[in-house]
Amino acid sequence: MTTFLTPRQLARRTSAAVDAAVAAGRELGLTVTDPTVLHDLFSVVVHLAPSPVVARIPTVLPRPDDLAALARRQQDELEVTRWLADQGVPVIAPSPLVPREPVRRDGFSMTFWPFVPEDRDKEPDYVANAESVADLHAAMRAYPGHLEFLAAADPRFIAESLARLDRHPTLIGAAELDRARREWQVLQPLVRSRTAFETRFPGIGLQPIHGDSPPANIFSGVDGNLYADFELVTLGPVEWDLASLGPEHESAYNRGARRNGTRPLDEEVLGFVNALGMLRVVASLTLVPQLPQLMEYLEPAVDRWLMNGQDDLDVRVQGPGWPSSSTRGRSGPP
């Protein structure tokens, strides 16, 4: 039986995250008298007013007890965004008012960012954003720090989730789960091994990438757009950042790549990252008990995956033949 958190339990979790952020902020020397929750989904984002500092506290996690692993990823995000800001890239960088490192408090691990006023009247233009992602990639190529290969895909999370989803029959049927497991057996060697990926896709250069659909993670500030939310920053093919966005966004990215002299998207790699991204969606069903409203976001994507039917992934991975953008299931930015 699947047990979902109740609205009261969710409210308590949010309250606990806010309390932890306020206490941590005060210990760091910030004045906090009027904390205000700005966002509450996978993370609680709270403005530690009147200080111009925002704390982001992840609360929906594949492994909630592994704060050490979370902190390592948070440190990567802090280092990458600080470096990008130093290069003049428009990005939300870590707050300069506190040390640039994750802070653990009361069972949470959090990071601190500047409070940036949002232009709430501006509608996001995801196509224009996709074109600008080519500029972000061009800037990130020179990042000198170490990043893990396709850590954003989190193969451990996918494997563990698919192994235990049969305990949650209300979330996915047996036949659909069997299909997902078969697809994962084909895809996982290319996710777990950089060498295997480079052998299958020769000439596809790997580089630092945003990791989490950057066209949907561009913040509309009152003084202009800023790249944001690098929580899944990773080493990988640039195609990962355009996964499942569809031909219009892919064409926009390619326009940006032509403009700045970088390579366009590769159709076969797009097929791979789209298939892998859909398995991450299926795996994310295991997070629904932690965040019941997540189902309304995942269900349409799972339905599209089911409508596309079972494909012969073995043939695709072993040789040419990933589907073209005209045949891929697709969805726009969230």
Shape: globular
Terminal residue distance: 29 Å
The CATH architecture of the largest domain comes to Alpha-Beta Complex
Report helical residue fraction.
40-55%
Structural class: alpha+beta
Strand content: 5-15%
- Number of β-strand runs: 9
If helices are DSSP runs of H or I spanning 4 or more residues, what is the number of helices?
10
Low-confidence stretches: 318-334
Sheet of most strands: 5 strands, antiparallel
- What is the total domain count? 2
CATH names the topology of the largest domain as Aminoglycoside 3'-phosphotransferase, Chain: A, domain 2
- Tell me the strand order in the biggest sheet: 1-2-3-5-4
Succession of helices and strands: HEEEHEEHHHHEEEEHHHH
According to CATH, what is the class of the largest domain?
A: Alpha Beta
Return the average pLDDT rounded to an integer: 92
Radius of gyration: 20 Å
CATH superfamily of the largest domain: Aminoglycoside phosphotransferase (APH), C-terminal lobe
